[in-house]
């Protein structure tokens, strides 16, 4: 498999200057802030805006929301000025269109995957969402639609049509990343709990190890592609 673009790497659920600086210095292409009160990664829009200002222009700033209404989005967009809105709830295609029209920002629409049919759910969003994000279904009893540290069967991604742009997420960490990239050839990867020492607590060493694993896997897929 060859890669025509460098791998996009998103580190999500950031709450501290140290973690933002570490992710960006290691070459994150995207950083994400979570606006979901039940999450241990939840952050106030003003705090996210202050953190984003440290690195604005060097990395894409992603606001992660879950079925947010326009009042919520107004505040997030005012305070954070994100580059991308990640809609991680059950937002309909009509709602995605409406959000894009109101805010004039690209939307990355998240889908949870367990089986092949889950991938078909993107069909009504094709040409509407700018990018997709595939995460695992939350475990029973979880209050979080994402950030659960759970993976899905990556071989399912072979069922996706070529040309669908997406980020792979769900339980990615330094130990499983190479296999995930090898099996999917994902154009982008996203992690949140996989670089934490406790829920909501980013670990700078784990962030570093995640990037090391990503660079190694990227190199290996490039070498494998050249051999074909
Ligand atoms: O991280 C959260 O707490 C969260 C809360 C609500 C919606 C999305 C959330 N995170 C997203 O979940 C995926 C996977 O996370 P993980 O690596 O399995 O912990 C990632 O896309 C985050 O953006």
TrEMBL record:
**SUPFAM superfamilies documented for this protein:** Ribulose-phoshate binding barrel
**All residue ranges annotated as the N-(5'phosphoribosyl) anthranilate isomerase (PRAI) domain in the record:** 9-212
Has UniProt tagged this entry with the keyword Magnesium? no
Supply the alphabetized keyword list.
Amino-acid biosynthesis, Aromatic amino acid biosynthesis, Isomerase, Tryptophan biosynthesis
Top EC class, one word: isomerase
Task: Supply the EC number(s).
Answer: 5.3.1.24
Write one Pfam family the protein is assigned to.
Answer: PRAI
Which BP terms from GO are recorded?
L-tryptophan biosynthetic process
Family that this chain belongs to: Belongs to the TrpF family.
Report what the protein is called: N-(5'-phosphoribosyl)anthranilate isomerase
Source organism: Shinella kummerowiae
């Amino acid at each position: 498999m060859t890669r025509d673009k460098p791998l996009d790497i998103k580190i999500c659920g950031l709450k501290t200057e140290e973690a933002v600086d570490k992710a960006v210095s290691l070459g994150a292409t995207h950083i994400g802030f979570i606006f979901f009160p039940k999450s241990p990664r939840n952050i106030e829009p003003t705090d996210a805006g202050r953190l984003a200002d440290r690195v604005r222009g060097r990395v894409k700033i992603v606001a992660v929301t879950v079925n947010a209404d326009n009042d919520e989005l107004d505040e997030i967009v005012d305070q954070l000025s994100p580059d991308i809105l990640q809609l991680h709830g059950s937002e309909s295609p009509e709602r995605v269109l409406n959000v894009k029209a109101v805010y004039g920002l690209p939307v990355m629409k998240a889908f949870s995957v367990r089986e092949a049919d889950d991938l078909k759910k993107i069909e009504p969003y094709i040409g509407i969402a700018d990018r997709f994000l595939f995460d695992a279904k939350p475990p029973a009893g979880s209050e979080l639609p994402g950030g659960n540290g759970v993976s899905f069967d990556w071989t399912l991604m072979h069922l996706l049509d070529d040309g669908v742009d997406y980020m792979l997420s769900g339980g990615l960490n330094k130990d499983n990343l190479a296999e995930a990239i090898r099996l999917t050839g994902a154009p982008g990867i996203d992690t949140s709990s996989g670089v934490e020492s406790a829920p909501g607590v980013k670990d700078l060493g784990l962030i570093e190890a995640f990037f090391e694993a990503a660079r190694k896997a990227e190199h290996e897929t490039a070498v494998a592609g050249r051999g074909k």
